[in-house]
Design goal:
There is one protein chain. By secondary structure, this protein is an alpha/beta fold. It has 6 helices and 6 strands, in the order βαββααβαβαβα. The protein is 39% helix and 20% strand. α4 packs parallel to α5. The longest helix has 19 residues. The radius of gyration is 16 Å and the shape is globular. It starts with 10 loop residues before the first strand and ends with a helix.
């Protein structure tokens, strides 16, 4: 999507996290582009770079930041290009990816410091994603471990956050994470 002057009047929502966390699928669900009637995850290809799209009748410009390492490095190297003017920051944690939890935590800390610098009034929302029906109860432990690592950091910086448990198998869990905070504030 090309940049235009109308985008300056839209609230900027950034959705980020590691690759395969489910960020693009979440955006597609909000845009009614993904049909989940078959009750199986969609076959998605990775987001390359940044995908910009409009949501909520043009009131919100969504920046879906691809989570592969090459793109994460780009965002961190050029923070003013990506993290300036953010109204809402959604960080997506794949709670089924035990082996990459520490990477997700480190990336969150690095990104959050930059968002705090370039968008100090941004509202932080954490999505603990892929809490699918019949999930292994140990998955909830990953959510706890992530929070255990970041909460002291956020408290030391006097930053509050909101979190939601989401899954593509309960579309309302995703809609609630966006409607409750976003639509009421826009």
């Amino acid at each position: 999507m090309e940049y235009n002057s109308d985008q300056e009047q839209q609230a900027k929502l950034v959705i980020l996290g590691l690759e395969n966390a489910g960020k693009t699928t979440i955006v597609d669900i909000l845009k009614h582009k993904t049909d989940l009637t078959l009750l199986k995850p969609p076959n998605m290809s990775p987001t390359k770079g940044v995908q910009r799209s409009s949501l909520f009748e043009g009131k919100m410009m969504v920046w879906d930041l691809g989570g592969q390492e090459i793109y994460r490095n780009e965002y961190l190297a050029n923070p003013d290009k990506y993290f300036k003017g953010i109204s809402y920051c959604y960080y997506v944690v794949d709670v089924q990816d035990y082996y990459r939890l520490s990477f997700s935590t480190m990336y969150f800390m690095g990104v959050f410091n930059l968002i705090k610098k370039y968008s100090p009034t941004a509202i932080l929302i954490l999505l603990f994603h892929k809490l699918d029906p019949g999930f292994d109860p140990n998955i909830k432990n990953l959510k706890g471990k992530f929070l255990e690592k970041i909460e002291p950091f956020l408290l030391n910086n006097n930053i509050s956050f909101i979190s939601f448990d989401t899954t593509i198998f309960d579309i309302n869990s995703i809609k609630t994470a966006f409607n409750q905070e976003i639509l009421d504030l826009v």
